[in-house]
Amino acid sequence: MTLEECIAVAGGDYQEVLSRLMMPALIEKFLFRFPEDATMSNLEAALAAGDAPTAFREAHTLKGVCANLGLANLEHSSSELTEVLRNQTSLNGVDYAEKLDRVRQDYRVAVDAIEATRA
Questions:
Q1: Are 74 and 106 in contact (CB under 8 A)?
Q2: Tens-digit pLDDT profile for residues 30-43
Q3: d(Cα 108, Cα 71) in Å, to the nearest integer?
Q4: pTM here?
Q5: Of 72, 57, 54, 59, nearest to 16 (Cα)?
Q6: CA atoms within 13 A on the CB side of 89
Q7: Cα Rg, the chain, nearest whole Å
Q8: How far is CA 37 from the centre of its chain?
Q9: Which of 52, 58, 68, 99 suits a disulfide with 43, CB 3.0-4.6 Å?
């Protein structure tokens, strides 16, 4: 799979990412690092621990990273989760499960596409 196909599978526009990062080598460099990034696991750990402020920060970070890399589907779903978590001091009564499921699905699609590109 090419970089362009990878980004398309994740819902993004390769030319937009290229205009931001300027070189295919930089896109590849940062895209291939994405699966090893701890943000997703940190998000899940914070949610499991009931740590709303950290969960918000991690969801927001994931959204930003995805915006830069053109992982638009994951950017969108993590943005929705970010808004559910915004200004929460506790997760008691916060219904985030559906949003988190969508983030997990989009994350898996993005990582699978990246791994197929790397192969």
A1: yes
A2: 999 999 999 999 99
A3: 11
A4: 0.94
A5: 72
A6: 0
A7: 14
A8: 10
A9: 58
Helix%, strand%, coil% for the chain, nearest 5: 80, 0, 20
Q: Tell me: the pLDDT tens digits for 56-105?
A: 999 999 999 999 999 999 999 999 999 999 999 999 989 999 999 999 99
Return the closest-CA partner of residue 81 out of 66, 108, 62, 109: 62
How far, in Å, are 44, 88, 94 from residue 73 at the CA level?
A: 18, 24, 23
**Domains of the chain listed by start with CATH number:** 3-118 (1.20.120.160)
Terminal-to-terminal C-alpha distance of the chain = 8
Asked if residues 10 and 110 have their Cβ atoms less than 8 Å apart, the reply is yes
CA distance 24 to 46: 34
Burial degree of 93 (CB within 10 A; 0-12, 13-18, 19+): exposed
Cβ neighbours around 35 below 10 Å, total: 14
CB 97 within 8 A of CB 67: no
